[in-house]
Structures are given as C-alpha cells and as structure tokens.
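debug: dumping io for the single-chain case to check the tokenizer round-trip. Nothing else runs in this session.
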Amino acid sequence: MGWAIALHGGAGDIPVSLAAERRQPREAALRHCLKVGVDALKARKSPLDVVELVVRELENNPHYNAGRGSVLTREGTIEMEASIMDGNTKRCGAVSGLTTVVNPISLARLVMEKTPHIYLAFDGAERFAREQGIETVDSSHFITQENIERLKQAKEANRVQIDYTQPIQKDEKKETPTADGDSQIGTVGCVAVDSHGNLASATSTGGLVNKMVGRIGDTPIIGAGTYANNFCAVSATGKGEAIMRGTVARDVAALMEFKGLSLKEAAAYVVEECVPRGNVGLVAVSAKGEVTMAYNTTGMFRACATEDGYSEIAIWPSVQN
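debug: decoded output
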C-alpha cells in the first residue's frame, strides 16, 4: 500500500492532429499539477487537501473547462459547478450555477464543512460564498475570447457540445481555425489516496458549450461525476447526461464492493459496458494505492503517479509493443 494520485483535464473527441501550440500548454499544466499533488502527498497532506489543491490549480488554468476557462451557456454567461468527497467519512459538498467564484472546488468544500447540506446552487451558493469571504470576481473574468468563439461555432452548428467536439467542416478542402483543436479544453478532476488508504475525489467544470441556462451536469452529482468511499475514489468526465444515467463514479465503487472486482476491472466495465462509446472518461485510485485512467472517447488529458515511482502523462491511448 502506498500513496497514488490521478488527474484529468477532460475526455472527448481530441484530434491526434492537435496543434503543438494547443497541446503543449495543456500537457505542461498536467505536469505542473501532478507535481503539486505529488509534493503535497509526500508532505503528508490529507487526500482531501491534495485533491482540492490540484483542482484549484486546474481551475486557475484557462486551457481547461473549469474556473477561469469555463465554457459559455447559450446566453454567453458562465455557470460553473464542482464537487468534492472524502472517502473515509463520505462527507461531500457540491455547488452549481456559480458566476463569480474564482475556485468553485473550494466553495464545494466549504459547503461540506460549514453547512448541514451537501449541495448549494445559483444565488444561494453565491450568497454563501460572500458570507464565507471566498474570493470572487466580476463574471467577465471568466469569459475568454476562445470560449466566445467556441459558443459561436456551437450556435452555428445548432448543437450543445462537449468541450472537445470537433468543429463542423464547411469546406472539406480547408480546415477551420479550430479543426486542429484550437481552444479545445476540458473538465478537470483529481483523485488521491495516502499511504494509510484514505481517499478523496474532486471534480470541477464549466459544463457544456451552448448549454441551456440552469442546466446541471454530472460534475456536482455525487455518485455520477464524483465519488469516494473506503474502496476507491473516482472523478469522471465527458457528456454529463450519459454519466448521470450510468451513475459512473458510484458504479465503479459498487463493483469493487459487491462484486469483488479490482479497481482496473471495475473502471473498465463501467466505461465499456455502462456508458455508450464516445461519452466518458474517468480517473480512479483504490485504497491499496492502485490507479487507473479509463475512457471510451478518442482521448483524455490525464496524468498519474504512485509511490513506487510510476508516472504517466498522456492524451491518447498508449502504443502497445
């Protein structure tokens, strides 16, 4: 048994042709956040502290669909959501409909620790943030030019889309400016276990591009996008409606608890059998220090490390020799 950590930056139709100038900043962010998490685990910080810390770092990075880089609703506004869960106690907190909170994951933790509730949303969540003195900014802080362009593309195509949905080609002979992945970003999440088997999970997102105002996805739903108990911790990413229908995060834990499956077996079953292809990815760690990163999409921005020295940072499937 030893510590382990895994994080993701979203799963979807990520083109292998993703331009270097678009890919490298995201890989650099994964590398940086992985180091932040590993250093925190080595410093014996609790898994709950570690996942919050890592997700805050990812929320502050405009290349991912959470916090600073959150995508826009059909009205061009921001509605962020997040959740966090402690495996030992099953205490959890979740928030939705945030428009001014710099780090939604930290507000989710405050809901867990400072209220008798699990989930606060919209005006009530914003009011609670102000009462707690958590950092807030004008909502314009979150509206980036890249996300304005992505919303425009989604509206032109008349679709609600996942972060990595490829633009429709109007002329097959000419690539659109984003055909190689320009401004393609993703939901973020982190799971961690310490050397004593304590587990935690955290997930944060801006949701779907061109979503209806008021739409809530899987990220703040305990058991769908986020779950942790004394068997494992799971953070999911992809198309929220499919993840909610599949109760993805909870099912991984349930297969381990009631069927005796290993972490890798449970995650693989849920990803391959419970959710239609092209809809989900997840990262998970077990109380034994095992780690898995499974997805049924083209790719998933992901990274992991374990106490025995294993580490991985990847986007697409690894080449098997």
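debug: round-trip ok. Residues 4-145+176-314 form a domain with the Glutamine Phosphoribosylpyrophosphate, subunit 1, domain 1 fold (CATH 3.60.20.30).
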